[in-house]
Amino acid sequence: MLGSGDGAHIIKLRGLPFSTSVEDVLDFLSGVNILNGKEGIHLTEVRPGRPSGECFVEVESQEDVDEALKKDKENMGKRYIEVFSTDRQDMEWALNAMRQSENGFDSIPNVSDDYGIVKLRGLPFGCSKEEIELFFDGLSVAQDGVHLLSDHTGRASGEAFVYFVDKQSAQDALGRDREKIGHRYIEVFISAPDEVRAYASRMEGGGFKSSRGYRPTPYDRNDRYSGGRFGGRGGRGG
Fold first, then answer.
1. What CATH number has the domain spanning 108-191?
2. Mind listing the pLDDT tens digit for each residue in 204-225?
3. Pairing between strand 50-58 and 10-14?
């Protein structure tokens, strides 16, 4: 539970309709004291313009966390919302990942044959660019050369591309294969510009695009269970 380390009190909502606004979250959490009002609500996206269906909310006290948890599985429209207690590390990791997604592949240096590129696999949850740079300490990582990858949901995949100033530096990086970041063994492979371009194409194309038309999610409820805009627990008798 968050709170214990830095005194922060944070909850996480999951299953939000994609049209959810900050005002909708305020309405849903009526009776809960949110730290700094609207500024304490952080809706997240898997990429710009594509909501994740999740948000983090900073509240004023543990009592407010407990009050918010009572709303677990209540409805927002036709969707039931999961409510969790979480911590600042989880929130900051998600917000950092979102900012990275906003930058996307537009911020990557030109994918040219001049760079040496490796791909990492097996990165621990929440691994930062700084940790990867430290992993390759002593080798010539290019400026802004670490790019953490996401899966089709926008979550960290545990993989990264790392650019080096030349191909020899990338070859030297293979010597770090099976070394650890934290408690995880990291696999290091030689990559190439074509692999980077293919990943970028997936993320910009089919990787994030939903199928046409409406597709139900596990959080949707049938009309007979919906109790209005912010109805109660629907068919669960709550």
1. 3.30.70.330
2. 654 433 333 334 555 555 543 3
3. antiparallel
Supply the pTM of this predicted model.
0.49
pLDDT per position as a tens digit, 180-190? 999 999 999 99
The one-letter code for the residue type at 80 is Y
Owner of token pair 């650019």: 163
Domains 10-102+214-233 and 108-191 share a fold: yes
Q: Tell me, what DSSP letter sits at residue 34?
A: B
The 3 state secondary structure assigned to 97-124 is: HHHHHHHHHHHCCCCCCCCEEEEEECCC
Query: Count of residues for the chain?
Result: 238
Measured distance CA(59)–CA(222) in Å, rounded: 31
Q: Which residue has the tokens 């074509």?
A: 194
Q: Is the CB of residue 45 less than 8 Å from the CB of residue 5?
A: no
- Cβ burial of 143 (10 Å; 0-12, 13-18, 19+) is exposed
Domain positions in the chain: 10-102+214-233, 108-191
